[in-house]
Amino acid sequence: MAVSTNVSAAVGMVCEAFLYGVYCVLFIASIVILVKRYRVSHRVILVANCLLFATSTAHFALVFNHFYIALENAPFSAFGDETPELMGANLLSSVADLLGDLLLLYRCWLVWGKNYYVIILPLLTALAGFGCILPIPSLVLSINPTSPVPPTEIVPLTTAGYALPLCTNIMVTGLIAVRLWYISRVPIIDEYGKPAILKIAAGGRPMMLVIESGALYMITQLIFVVLVAMQNSAEAVLSYAGTQIYGIASTLIIIRVGLGISSETVPTTHVKFWSQSKDTIGGTWRDDHPFDSSVVA
Question: Looking at the whole model, is its pTM more than 0.85?
Answer without folding.
Answer: no
